[in-house]
Task: structure prediction
Amino acid sequence: MKLLKNTVSLLLSAVVVTCMGSAVFADSGVNINQTFKDANFRTYLKQYDKNANGSLDDSELKNITAICCTSENKIKDVSGIERLKYCTDFSAVAGEVVDVDLSKCTNIKNVSIFCCSKVKSFKAGSDLEYLEISHSSIETLDLSCTFYLETIELRCNDNLTGKVDLTRAMFLKSAMISSCPVTSIEFCKASRLSVLEITATNVSNLDLRKITGLDFTLYFFISSNSNLRSMSLPSDIFIFHVSHMKNGKTSYIDDTRLFILE
Result:
């Protein structure tokens, strides 16, 4: 009997300790000062801290569905943004933001960056579906996690050189890259692609043979790529407009279809 009592006592003690531990380690929300490095970002988020306790609880986090960095709020660093678990939209408009790292975000689906003269790099999160970057100073673009990306628009980014890697974008529907000095664009088997525009880039070789399974392409525009010398296309792509290729090896069969002479 004594042994039984001791055993029961030990079990009760374990339960008490477990309960206390749960109370200690229960989710007390997202501490604003400890989580976010940028002082202006902290100030921006404090508007959602309705009880002014310095922490964002779940009910408060649910109200943060979009983050916008502007010249008014002067946010430079969005570190910690992955803790805003209900945020699905991110934008930066003529703001102070320098590097946008969303690689830890599994919830942000839409990203727009406009006229940001200080932004240098962008890293996408795994759930990104829509990306637009225009008239900005972006230099490097990391899309290695963008499996669900459907739309990408890159326009008038004079410092964006190197490669645009879309080899993970299996669900890509629309890709528009214009007035960006990129030297390489790589695609995967994006059978949902319906819009492709590549204009005024420094791409010299464009290989689209991995894009297969297309019934038709609704809009295909390739123009003013002064360094473009060769293109390789799958047989099921229809071309609506191709111009200004430099010594390109092409043969027009009719008004809408183009074949590459390998």
Remarks:
- The first helix runs from residue 2 to 25.
